[in-house]
Amino acid sequence: MSNLYIKKAIVIGATSGIGNALSRILVAHDYVVGVTGRRKLELYALKNINPERFAVSAFDCTTENNSEKLTDLVNDLGGLDLLILSSGTGDLNDQLDFDIEHKTNLLNVNAFTEIVDWAFNYFEKQGKGHLVAISSIAGIRGSRMAPAYNASKAYQINYLEGLRQKATKSKKPIYVTDIRPGFVDTAMAKGDGQFWVASKEKAAKQIFGIIKRKKGIGYVTKRWWLIGKLLRTLPNSFYKRM
How many folded domains does the chain comprise? Predict the structure, then answer.
């Protein structure tokens, strides 16, 4: 083993999709990675790729004590430099079924808040660190088809902006990155009319580049910033009829 410092990361939501692909990229770039998610078999399939570079903690972040689970995982890793929150949910809900909205908010708002607060406090106490959360371009405007999903992503976008302010005020090398994907070929991509659909591998590769540059906000794939700009500038009188 080299005497060089080995970077440690945690990926929350690593069982599939972008989180799974990012975990593989991090290990390929010499990170030791703690992976979490509900499905233990998928997490151990990652660990089997490189047993010395993966640590597994299987839990449901909507029902368990995230702070306790993450603290235990950090102790297993021997430290933490980077936390990536890639766990989210959302369904089309034209009928406004409250169970669907509640399930969305439990993960995208409640669990999200507990996790990013824990991470920020950990990095502030440590004096450095990088928090990355995957929100969505959907958070820029509301949606008649998925009200809670878009609203919860707007919450995430604004919460992360607040944490970036806190990081700046702390004057410590703490970085907070908001990743806003468009359509990615995962189970989260629902509905008709999808375009510019990226593979999870392509999305993860671009996200890793954003992480390396420590950008505050990143669109994935890159050209989705055009859609973001369009959404922000559409007049309300037009958007409400869409």
Answer: 1
